[in-house]
Every structure is written in structure tokens, then in C-alpha cells.
Write a structure and sequence with these properties.
Length: 145
């Protein structure tokens, strides 16, 4: 699903595309799309912009930076008919600096999504819980002892 929806938490961040030279992507919305909401089967990151050109789905390496997340896809990603080697999301980090997680980049209508390995999903959901705790019900039956 593209655009805002229930269970998609908007993230205020800047998207920078890099291939040695950095280019800011001005018209990109970023969401943490939670499992179980708006057709999501797993929690993932949505990057939505009409600037993305359809390409090959592929594996990615996701790296935590200083107040940023770096995504390095196996294949170059095309945006406005130019190929880029990495995506830097400035102002958004859910991993520790230097921490690396494997994942998957898939193309969708008007954008891409980034799926993560299980340990990455747990960290992303913990970050999402800080942003929007209303999507994470409290279990009152849980024994804290």
C-alpha cells in the first residue's frame, strides 16, 4: 500500500542517494510499516517516491551510522534514470553505529520497501514502539517477576 495508512508510522528523515557523489531525493516519504496493519505480512521500511524506476529486487546490507541508516543493495538502484550504489537515510537510525543487518529491497508502485532479517525487525519494532506506542498493546497478564 502506498501513502499514509493506519499502521504506517511516518519517519522524518532525508534520503540521500550516493554513487561517489551524493544527491538528495526531495520527494520521498519514509514509513515504518508494521506487521498486521494495512496488508503488511512483516514489519518493514517503506520509501515512497515516484522518482524510483522499476528495477531488480535484491539483497541489501543495512548499516547503522551516526544518526543515519545506510542501505547498500546488491544491484544499483535507479532513480530518475540515474543509477546509485547506496541509499543514506539521514535522521533515521534503529541500529547501533557500525552494526550490520542483512535484508531485502523490493520494488513496489511508487517506491521501494526494505525487509530485514529477524534481528533487524526486532530493533525496528523497538524503535517504532518509541515513536508510536499506541500500536503496541500492553500485556497486563504478563508476570514481571
Amino acid at each position: 500500500m502506498t501513502g499514509p495508512a493506519y499502521g504506517k508510522i511516518p519517519v522524518k528523515a532525508e534520503v540521500i542517494l550516493s554513487d561517489g557523489e551524493e544527491t538528495k531525493l526531495h520527494d520521498c516519504n519514509i514509513y515504518i510499516h508494521l506487521k498486521g496493519y494495512s496488508l503488511a505480512k512483516v514489519t518493514h521500511i517503506d520509501m515512497e517516491s515516484q522518482a524510483f524506476s522499476r528495477g531488480r529486487d535484491c539483497g541489501v546490507l543495512v548499516i547503522g551510522g551516526t544518526n543515519s541508516t545506510i542501505i547498500i543493495p546488491k544491484y544499483r538502484i535507479k532513480v530518475k534514470n540515474k543509477a546509485f550504489r547506496s541509499i543514506i537515510i539521514k535522521g533515521f537510525t534503529f541500529l547501533n553505529k557500525g552494526e550490520r543487518i542483512g535484508g531485502y529491497l523490493g520494488y513496489k508502485a511508487e517506491g521501494v520497501f526494505i525487509g530485514l532479517r529477524r534481528e533487524g525487525i526486532k530493533k525496528l519494532e523497538a524503535f517504532a514502539k518509541e515513536l508510536s506506542p499506541e500500536f503496541f498493546p500492553v500485556d497486563n497478564n504478563k508476570d514481571d517477576s
